[in-house]
Every structure is written in C-alpha cells, then in structure tokens.
Amino acid sequence: NAGVTQTPKFQVLKTGQSMTLQCAQDMNHEYMSWYRQDPGMGLRLIHYSVGAGITDQGEVPNGYNVSRSTTEDFPLRLLSAAPSQTSVYFCASSPKMGRLDGYTFGSGTRLTVV
Amino acid sequence: GNSVTQMEGPVTLSEEAFLTINCTYTATGYPSLFWYVQYPGEGLQLLLKATKADDKGSNKGFEATYRKETTSFHLEKGSVQVSDSAVYFCALREGGNNRKLIWGLGTSLAVNP
C-alpha cells in the first residue's frame, strides 16, 4: 500500500546508545519531515528535507541527525540517547508543489530512553 | 509569527451530541487550513482542508469553514459517534513555497455511548 512506513514501532534504549529510526515513502514526495509528539506540547518539527541531498533543521534539532540520499528514505539518527528524547516520533511527507497539499504521516515510533 | 490556537481539551460528549472544536489562527498572507485526526495508537490523518476564505472543508460528517474575518476554522459535527473519539489537530500551511505546517496543540475528544 502506498504511504509512509516507519520502523520500528517500539524501541527501548539505554542512555547513551545510538539508533536510527527509519522512514520510507513510495509516493515520490519530495518533502519529508520528522516530528516528535509529547503530551501537552503538540507536534514539534525536528528536521525536514525538501528533496534528495537537502536537509534543514526544525524547532528541536539538537541530538538528532538526518540525511536524504534518496527521494524515498529519510532516516532519523539519535546520536547519544537521553531520557528527554523519550517520545513518539512521526515521519511525514508531502508532494513538492502546492500549498493545497497536506501531509501523509507514518504510524509512528514510540521510543523510551531509560 | 504565524500561530494556531485550539480550544483545550479534553472534550467529553455523549453519542449523537453536537461537536464544536474551536481553532483560530494568526498568519500573514493567505494560508491553507487543515484539520487532522489521530486515533489512539495511530499517526495523524488528514480530515479536511480549506484553501481560501469562505471555503468549507468536509469529510465523514465533519465540516469547517475558513473565516478570514474572524481568523477561524472551527471543526463541527452534527452527531458524534463513539468511533470519533480521537485527538484533533488544527494546522495552517503558509503561502508561497514554505511547505511547513504550523500546528495547534490538539484537542482530545471522548465520546461516550
């Protein structure tokens, strides 16, 4: 099925460990982004990409790294996990053109850092 | 800067009650406006959208009208069901080439049978 696929769905990390959250889309969307969702804080943008080879920071980029080597994939790397990074992470994508388009979201990765 | 303000939840209703979730915005230019819904344990899904003043977005019995004079985009449904229990997010997308969405904090809705 077309859409945004995130893996894993759940993950527990120890403080200081690193990991990569995977995001892939098969809709040929040029714009992709990562959000974190925390209770009472809504959605906060971590990083985004407007096309392969181009990435930029969002509101809360510290402690996260991204790359965009292909149109389809946009992995999010946690360099050294901290308890403050316990959250639900969502990947979202959008076509290049038009303010008429909303986003397509993945189903999320629930991360716990202990 | 641009912003979106939603009414705080949680909102608790009985089945078949009328629903209104308020959303107001601050923006320059002519943004597009969206409502997203997040069911428990899932990602967000686009519920409806409107791209210019007086447009009405509708889907699954939900409606919202883009009111530029009051900078509002309130979500309404005439008769809610238990299956409508979810978190609802209002968002705006700025005009031009900026594709980023600006989000409200979300409003949780619980519908009791």
Shape of chain A: globular
How is the quaternary structure best described? heterodimer
What is the arithmetic mean of pLDDT of chain B? 92
The termini of chain A sit apart by 34 Å
Radius of gyration of chain A: 13 Å
Walk me through this protein's architecture.
The complex is a heterodimer of chains A (114) and B (113). Chain A contains no helices and 11 strands. Chain A has strands spanning 4-7, 10-13, 19-25, 31-38, 42-51, 54-57, 64-66, 76-78, 87-94, 104-105, 109-113. In chain A, strands 2, 4, 5, 6, 9, 10 and 11 form a 7-stranded mixed beta sheet that branches. In chain A, strands 1-3-8-7 form a 4-stranded antiparallel beta sheet, with no helix packed on it. In chain A, strand 5 and strand 6 (54-57) form a beta hairpin. Chain A is globular, with a radius of gyration of 13 Å. The model of chain A has no long low-confidence stretch (mean pLDDT 92). Chain B is mostly beta strands and 113 residues long. Chain B has no helices and 12 strands. Chain B has strands at 3-6, 11-14, 19-21, 23-26, 32-38, 44-50, 56-59, 62-65, 75-77, 86-93, 101-103, 107-112. In chain B, the strands form 3 sheets. In chain B, strands 2, 5, 6, 10, 11 and 12 form a 6-stranded mixed beta sheet that branches. In chain B, a hairpin with a 7-residue loop joins strand 10 and strand 11 (101-103). The radius of gyration of chain B is 14 Å and the shape is globular. Chain A binds chain B through residues 4, 31, 33, 40-43, 45, 48, 50, 58, 90, 92, 94, 99-100, 102-108, and chain B through 31-32, 34, 36, 42-46, 49, 51, 89, 93-96, 99-101, 103-106.
Give a short synopsis of this structure.
Chain A has strands spanning 4-7, 10-13, 19-25, 31-38, 42-51, 54-57, 64-66, 76-78, 87-94, 104-105, 109-113. With 114 residues, chain A is mostly beta strands.
